[in-house]
Design brief:
InterPro entries: Thioredoxin-like_fold, Thioredoxin-like_sf, VKOR, VKOR_sf. By secondary structure, the chain is an alpha+beta fold. The protein has 21 helices and eleven strands.
Length: 546
């Protein structure tokens, strides 16, 4: 199976069951799985993200027992298997072909391709889809046309047309904001993240895509919101001044739109339909105003009072917007915390019972150890330099290290399987050398520098030196990675507390929350990690034999 093309089937399926996860990180987790591209890899990756799922073998005659949508492996002939998204219709099916494109297929045609391997997941039953057509469609439409009517009486057909375009731009801006905050939206679910080449969330949430320190979603709200808000302040006599100021602000937006277009095409190499729609509205307004540019330029009468009014409205609107957005960010964070707190009691004995419900895991290969080696609490952290979630995990562990340096030791184990490049491998070797030669503080600084940009060439230019013990360092890294793989710890980030595997579905915030209790508890950590020389030698012999 061609993972990069057929991954679209997975996200069409997740969309159908109202589950949203980061596409790039899901791809990374699947690629890191030793069984890729088998159905097991996709299933285990679902488990990593906390999505309950199951893989089954279902005969075609039992198709009616399956849900309306599911994933399956189809055989196109000559051993060419594809992972396909299936959507059951009344008398036919929708499926994704080997390019990830949805197509119609009849029952007789899909029967020929059927292999029986099916993957189904549990949807998000907390999302309630309203069936009230009035509030979903009719009411917004009435508000839209009421606004256009008011604009007609203020400035006639021309102002009404311009206001309609501005309201459309504000709608797209709000959709961008909702995507940034992680709120569900039927519109964004329909048009975003639906193919290999599109991802609204990736573009909108990218720190690299900021323009003058602001995200495109923020700038578009400023632009379109101010356009509509000014119409409440400016009267009919100031309309030409209004058009002139808006036209100048739109022209000033052109460099930002070009940068956004370049960023999507060349940097992220993915498109954001919402962002492209916002850019399209900006150019539509420029074209619209250009048709009346002669009258606007000949009749505007700007003075200091009008400019001050414009600046004042912009300041008030921007200030109000950031206050509202900050409140929404707090609400979103509190909601996520509440979701976890509703599942897990903030009670240490209960937390420990969940943590120790399985047998401890004793890993022998020497990790990178920072903190106090004799501390009562040991946190093992399996990570990968290419894992996007590991940056947040690194910052989280750094907080624990800063506050509990003498009471905890943190064991860092790198995974080198999957898609690690030669440059990243060299970075890990140099990083391990920094730990051994310059100490844990310089190691932490170098690791923090890596996660700040994750560009191997840039990092190596700063830290790389000629090594005489390169083979030995590489052997240590490979030994750790190989042991991780042998124990099926190929997903990252992965945590252990005192050798007990931390449950994937339990929020890592509880580690930080219960650190005082963990320190005071009397733990029987068990067998200490033994030196890795024997393990490394054994692995080296195994490689030579292969």
């Amino acid at each position: 199976m061609e993972l990069r093309k057929e991954i679209n089937a997975v996200f069409l399926y997740l969309k159908s069951i109202d589950v949203k996860i980061d596409k790039d990180d899901y791809i990374y987790q699947v690629e890191s799985h030793p069984e890729t591209p088998s159905l097991l890899a996709f299933s285990d990756a679902f488990n990593f993200f906390g999505i309950p799922n199951g893989a089954f073998n279902v005969g075609f005659e039992e198709l009616e027992v399956l849900p309306e949508t599911f994933l399956t492996i189809l055989d196109l002939g000559e051993g060419h298997l594809i992972l396909s998204y299936i959507e059951k219709k009344e008398d036919h099916f929708m499926y994704t072909d080997n390019e990830g494109i949805k197509k119609d297929i009849s029952s007789s045609e899909i029967c020929v391709l059927w292999t029986g391997a099916v993957l189904v997941a549990e949807g998000n039953d907390q999302i309630i889809k309203s069936s009230n057509t009035f509030y979903n469609k009719v009411l917004p439409g009435l508000v839209f046309f009421a606004g256009l009517t008011v604009m007609y009486f203020i400035g006639g057909w021309y102002l009404m047309g311009f206001s309609g375009i501005a309201m459309l731009g504000l709608f797209f801006s709000f959709e961008a904001i909702k995507t940034e905050l992680g709120f569900e939206s039927g519109f964004s679910n329909q048009f975003c993240d639906g193919s290999e080449k599109s991802s609204c969330s990736q573009i909108i949430n990218s720190e690299k895509g900021k323009i003058a320190g602001f995200k495109l979603s923020d700038l578009s709200v400023f632009l379109f919101g101010t356009q509509l808000f000014l119409l409440i302040i400016f009267n009919r006599a100031l309309l030409n001044d209004y058009y002139f100021l808006i036209f100048i602000s739109l022209l000033a937006c052109i460099p930002f739109t070009l940068y956004s277009f370049y960023f999507q095409m060349k940097v992220e190499k993915k498109w954001c339909p919402i962002c492209l729609s916002i850019i399209g509205v900006i150019y539509a307004e420029i074209v619209y105003l250009s048709f009346n540019s002669r009258e606007i330029l000949n009749n505007y009468t700007l003075d200091i009072k009008t400019i001050s009014l414009f600046a004042g409205v912009l300041t008030v609107f921007v200030g109000g917007y950031f206050l509202i957005k900050r409140a929404l960010l707090s609400y979103s964070s509190l909601k996520k915390d509440a979701d976890f707190d509703s599942r897990y009691i903030r009670h240490y004995p209960y937390f420990k019972k969940i943590l120790t419900s399985k047998d401890p895991v004793l890993l022998k290969a020497d990790p990178i150890l920072i903190g106090n080696p004799d501390a009562p609490v040991s946190i093992t952290f399996i990570t990968s330099p290419l894992c996007s979630y590991c940056k947040e995990a690194h910052e989280f562990l750094q907080r624990i290290y800063t506050h509990y340096k003498d009471q905890v030791n943190i064991k860092i184990r790198f995974n080198m399987t999957g898609v690690v490049t030669a440059e990243v491998e060299e970075m890990l070797i140099q990083l391990l050398n920094i730990f051994h030669t310059k100490g844990e503080q310089k190691f932490i600084e170098a690791l923090h520098d890596w996660y700040s940009h994750r560009e191997a060439d840039k990092w190596l230019q700063k830290y790389s030196i000629t090594l005489v013990n390169r083979t030995s360092l590489l052997n240590k890294l490979v030994s750790v990675s190989y042991e991780n793989l042998q124990n099926n710890f190929f997903f990252t980030p992965h945590y252990f507390i005192n050798n007990y595997e931390f449950p994937v579905r339990l929020n890592k915030k509880y580690i930080e929350l219960f650190m005082p209790d963990l320190v005071e508890d009397q733990w029987d950590i068990g067998e200490k990690n033994i030196p890795a020389e024997e393990f490394e030698t054994q692995y080296g012999q195994m490689v030579d034999q292969n």
